[in-house]
Amino acid sequence: MQGLCRWRHICHSGQSAGRAGYHHEENWKGRIPLADSEGLRMNDRFWSRIRSDFPVLKRKINGRPIVYLDSACMALKPRQVISAMNEYYERFPACGGRSIHRLGEEASDAYSRARGKLARFINAAEPGECIWTRNATESLNIVASSVKIERGSKVVTTSLEHHSGSLPFVERAKKTGLKLEVVRARNDGTFDIEDWKRAIDSSTRIVSVVHSSNVTGTIAPLREIIEIAHDRGALVVSDDAQYAPHHPLDVQNLDVDFSAISVHKMCGPTGMGVLYGKMSLLESMDMFLVGGDTVSDVRFEDGRIIPSYLPPPHKFEAGLQNYAGAIGAGAAAEYLQSIGMREIEQHERDLLRAALEGLKQLSHVHFLGPDDVNLRTGLLTFVIDTVESAHDIATFLNDRYAVMIRSGWHCAAPFHYQIGIPPSKGTARASIYIYNNSNDISIFLTGLQTLIEQTS
């Protein structure tokens, strides 16, 4: 508490916080040098072209450049995505799949092409296996609600899930008598594969697993989990919200049954997600919503309304769709592929390695997850002993350095309870993406060191 009070005094004092912050930046590399700093500087020059695609990074806040380290919550948008969406609104802002006039046909064509771009991005067998949703949360809810599951069957999930990966199945279990078994992650976010072998049995119908944790960054052994599940007759739905934007995702090679993707985390627009599903499974599922554009015919016979529903993906896409959002999603997928997912993965690992090495040199800082960058994606979640709340860390970095991170429990409360961090404290999370560079990491670490010095 004493440290927190001292920090508050400095944050609200009349001193020039900006000058103090920049003084630390100038001296940073003499104090705690970044790992492989020369290599990172060369990499930064290569990636500066990518950074220039993001208009918001031209902004300054209180005279400081933005250091955006909150991409695990929301990725920034490149001009290519913005332009693609603007083209819809400016050139063919009409109903797709309905109107046969010129603007309607252009909207339909652009909408259809966007689905194909997403299918190529994840290597789906056909575009129809990609369903447009509002977000990964809705994608996971569709699976939980629409897959046929017999009473008494079991669903297996984990203690590491985002709430959206577990709660839809918790609620279905309440309503239909399903059994729910939770595989406990280790405290570093990794799994013991033997726990999966014990949990998944012949009564298991669905396994819901986060591919890459939004708290620890750890990457689950998904291929092994899928093999175990399929061997015992179970389906697997993978939460790829944090994986798909950062690593190559090949759904056919993995043989995953369902994948939930959040478009706004991969440089696409808000309000867009994707549910991938094997076509045979999508065809067998109940509909999530019904209405316009889900039917091929609705007969009226003998006082009865008799619908004939369309096959996937249309049976899951009721009503007027977010055409601009879908077009933006396709543009985002195309943009990331033009860079190369392997290149993106390596860029983030280089920056993550430097950030981890820097954190290790700071006193009072504890980060979650393994320190092997090959076992995790590009996010760092941590606590500082001398600061009472993660929100205080985020506020300090924002106010003093224009460094933007996330604080709280990241919609993953069960894991925070497991590792003994109460909601009132929470954790701070910095997440790296394609537009970040070594200077961002330096400023971030400088801010943390300054905060620790003032609260110790």
Tell me the CATH superfamily of the largest domain.
Answer: Type I PLP-dependent aspartate aminotransferase-like (Major domain)
Q: What is the number of beta strands?
A: 17
Arithmetic mean of pLDDT: 91
CATH topology group of the largest domain: Aspartate Aminotransferase, domain 2
How are the strands of the largest sheet arranged? 4-10-9-8-7-5-6
Question: What oligomeric state do the depicted chains represent?
Answer: single chain
Radius of gyration: 24 Å
- Main pleated sheet: 7 strands, mixed
Number of DSSP helical runs: 16
- In CATH, the architecture of the largest domain is 3-Layer(aba) Sandwich
Helix and strand content put the structural class at alpha/beta
First CA to last CA: what distance? 11 Å
Instruction: Using the coordinates above, name the CATH class of the largest domain.
Output: Alpha Beta
Number of domains: 2
Q: Give the helix proportion (percent range).
A: 40-55%
Share of residues in strands: 15-25%
Given as residue ranges, the uncertain stretches (5+ residues, pLDDT < 50) are 1-33
- General shape: globular
Give a short synopsis of this structure:
The chain is of the alpha/beta class and 456 residues long. The protein is built from 16 helices and 17 strands.
